[in-house]
From TrEMBL:
The keyword Transcription regulation does not apply. This is ATP-dependent DNA helicase. GO terms for biological process: DNA recombination; DNA repair; telomere maintenance. It comes from Fagus sylvatica (Beechnut). GO terms for molecular function: 5'-3' DNA helicase activity; ATP binding; ATP hydrolysis activity. Keywords: ATP-binding, DNA damage, DNA recombination, DNA repair, Helicase, Hydrolase, Nucleotide-binding. Its cofactor is Mg(2+). It comes from the Eukaryota. InterPro entries: DNA_helicase_pif1-like_DEAD (IPR010285), Helitron_helicase-like (IPR025476), P-loop_NTPase (IPR027417).
């Protein structure tokens, strides 16, 4: 079906043009065509594969020994597999492959976004031959031209000298709902060609407007493609590129924009491709996995609102329980644009990796999967000539036949050998590149987990028994072999499990893994496991709290981050009927501190750099005059002793009241306590560090009468804030003091 629609989308001089000149109807045609193709494939997985069964080999033999010769009650259903391009399992596999490349070559160096330009000469030249058609009327042409340009860009990046020698490339193609396709590209550079210093970064990435006289081509390209929203001080997400105030500007819609509005770019690529090509230097941190998750997040979905039907019977309290259906989940709110439909019909890549990643399956002895149909007799299935041939067992055979093969671990094997799936054999690699990725095994999976640990260490085994052989001693289990190699001393397997998972798993998944290890694995020192890995387990906590509190400037201390992480782990434990209190020396979350941390008003007032405030306070105190110092000492004594009381400081403008306020404010904040700085007018409030108007802070009515009260209700965040305040400074109070 796909090939038929791909044939119909091609324009031929000998055929009519009605379809291609349909404009919006043509867009509808290509979308309907692709959805038919996709639905046909999904129907196969739903209807045909229901007849397929899968079971481990020894389980199948046991069934035959019991006299069961039909597969009616044997095996498990196959749902939407990773072989379905664009599905959730497919995207997860692509993400894991990308992380395997990252483990092999290190952190990526450059993140490039390449967006299609609808005004490319190739597109405009084609449209000029079809009067009346606009670029949106021919998504097939846009897709084909973008694919050509993307291939050329890949060639330039891998063969050219723009950034140096490229060791690996990963990209994914996305489609804007009402816009143009774009590719997210990650480049891994040779160690000798990395750019660790700002001066070297400035050679390959620019965030400035070129000179219009000396570089007119570059100036025009930047003006047209690389001017965007504010950066620098206005956008702290991209502060480290050089943006000099050199007086150069670009006029957009009558507004002059300077270097603060330039999206980082590479000058050579921008001039050559005449398109938006954003080039960003990648940060070296564990959070890089979220970049890989972003580029493998899957297809677009539509957004809509469900409203309750007011005519529904209010007495109806029925609930409908539905089973998990991966195909239905994939289709729910699925959004397909005309560009994506053409791209998929032409079978262009939506994911690209160079080098390729060979996914290495493994299994315990006689526990490899066997696929069969409902109509197969089980005794015939186990008698198949190649039923025991798997990628893993054929690795043993290659090690037995070739001495050179015995110099490599299982994950290293694809770099020198090629797996031929059609004949189930490994052969020496003659050309090309590939790296290996062993499938993940959960720590709770028993011997499979320990087998995977050994496969990363042991070279050239010819049998399962040789994997368990350490120093000429055959150990009864893979776990015992791991102990003999010293892989399990001091809970090493659990530390390694968390470290390995941290390369690809989210913070939430890592905390669930930690919970599983505590509950179901034999951990000798839970406290040490926590202390050694709490930073890994909490790598998304700050981002999550910023999102919850809608406060991007939020800062958390290590103690606060640990507290949030422990709360998440404790919640996981409670869902399993357990608690962290059951584990000796394991810390327990401080629930009172957590409650305060979820109060945005308190968080804002505590979100100051105590060390910086202390330095500022020391500087200010040295400049206090005698009268200021006397007031400062009196107020500080009262606050320290918790005596309470009111102090009125009177003085006309310029006598140093604000300077005194700053001394007290920086002192309180350097102690990690709360001081509320308010003023009766907005202008006066701006002069106080973190100042606000009194009406805003205390919710004072605009029109004040004899019976007016502040509208702070008991139990609210504002009331809780007031209970934590150490000092209130009110500048220009109503009585003039």
């Amino acid at each position: 079906m796909r090939e038929y629609y791909a044939y119909r989308l091609q324009e031929r001089e000998s055929e009519g043009k009605t379809l291609h000149h349909g404009r919006r109807l043509f867009q509808q045609f290509v979308v309907d065509s692709y959805t038919c193709v996709e639905q046909s494939r999904l129907r196969y997985f739903r209807d045909k594969q229901k007849q397929l069964r899968s079971e481990v080999y020894h389980g199948l033999k046991d069934a035959v020994f019991r006299g069961d010769t039909t597969p009616a009650s044997i095996g498990k259903r196959i749902v939407l597999p990773s072989s379905f391009t664009g599905g959730p399992r497919y995207m997860i596999q692509c993400y894991q492959d990308a992380m395997a490349i990252c483990r092999w070559f290190g952190y990526p160096d450059l993140f490039i976004t390449f967006t299609c330009n609808s005004k490319w000469p190739e597109i405009e030249s084609f449209l000029s031959m079809h009067p009346g058609l606009k670029v949106e009327d021919r998504p097939d042409i846009v897709a084909r031209v973008f694919k050509i340009k993307l291939n050329n860009l890949m060639h330039d990046l891998k063969r050219g000298s723009h950034f140096g020698r490229v060791l690996a490339v990963v990209y994914t193609v996305e489609y804007q709902k009402r816009g143009l396709p774009h590719a997210h590209i990650l480049l891994f550079l040779h160690p000798d060609d990395k750019h660790p210093t700002p001066a070297e970064i400035d050679k390959i990435i620019s965030a400035e407007i070129p000179d219009a006289l000396t570089e007119p081509e570059a100036y025009e390209a930047v003006s047209q493609f690389m001017i965007h929203g504010p950066c620098g001080a206005a956008n702290t997400n991209s502060p480290f590129y050089r943006r000099r105030d050199d007086g150069r500007t670009v006029e957009k819609n009558g507004i002059k924009l300077d270097n603060r509005f330039v999206v980082p770019y590479n000058k050579e690529l921008l001039i050559k491709y005449q398109a938006h090509i954003n080039v960003e230097w990648c940060n070296r941190s564990r959070s890089i996995k979220y970049l890989f998750k972003y580029i493998n997040k899957g297809p677009d979905r539509g957004t809509f609102v469900l409203q309750e039907n007011s005519d529904a019977d209010p007495r109806s309290n029925s609930t409908q329980i539905t089973e998990i259906d991966e195909i239905k989940t994939y289709l729910d709110c699925r959004y397909v644009s005309a560009i994506e439909a053409c791209w998929r019909i032409f079978e262009f890549e939506i994911q690209y990796r160079d080098p390729s990643v060979e996914r290495l399956g493994f299994h315990l002895e006689d526990e490899h999967n066997v696929v069969f149909t409902d109509s197969d007799y089980l005794d015939n299935v186990i008698d198949r000539p190649d039923v025991d041939k798997t990628m893993f067992t054929q690795w043993f055979k290659a090690n037995e036949m070739y001495d050179s093969a015995r110099q490599l671990t299982y994950s290293e094997f694809p770099s020198k050998w090629v797996w031929h799936k059609n004949i189930s054999e490994w052969s020496p690699r003659k050309s090309g590149r590939s790296i290996g990725r062993i499938y993940y095994a959960h720590p709770g999976s028993g011997e499979r987990f320990y087998l995977r640990m050994l496969l990363n260490v042991v070279k050239g085994p010819r049998t399962f028994e040789e994997i368990r052989t350490i120093n000429n001693i055959i150990h009864p289990t893979f776990r015992a072999a791991c102990y003999a190699l010293g892989l399990l001393d001091d809970d090493k397997e659990w530390h390694e499990a968390i470290r390995q998972a941290s390369l690809w798993a989210t913070g939430k998944q890592l905390r669930e893994l930690f919970t599983t290890i505590l509950l179901f694995c034999e951990v000798s020192d839970p406290y040490n496991l926590w202390v050694s890995n709490w930073e890994i387990l909490s790598d998304d906590i700050l981002h999550r709290q910023r999102r919850i509190l809608q406060y991007e400037e939020l800062r958390l201390s290590n103690e606060q981050i640990q507290n949030y992480t422990l709360e998440e782990i404790e919640n996981n434990m409670v869902r399993n009927g357990r608690s962290l209190k059951e584990f000796e020396m394991m810390p327990y979350p401080d629930m009172m501190r957590l409650r305060e941390s979820n109060n945005r008003l308190i968080v804002e007032e505590l979100n100051y750099d105590k060390l910086g405030e202390a330095e500022e306070h020391a500087r200010i105190v040295q400049g206090l005059n005698t009268d200021q110092r006397n007031i400062y000492d009196e107020v500080r004594k009262s606050v320290t002793c918790n005596n309470g009381g009111f102090y009125f400081v009177y003085g006309h403008g310029g006598t140093g009241k604000t300077y005194l306020w700053k001394a007290l404010i920086t002192w309180i904040r350097s102690e990690g306590k709360i001081v509320l700085a308010v003023a009766s007018s907005g202008i006066a409030a701006l002069l106080l560090p973190g100042g606000r108007t009194a009406h805003s802070r205390f919710q004072i009515p605009i029109k004040v009468g004899d019976e007016s009260t502040c509208s702070i209700k008991q139990g609210t965040h504002a009331a809780e804030l007031m209970s934590k305040v150490s000092l209130i400074i009110w500048d220009e109070a109503p009585n003039g003091s």
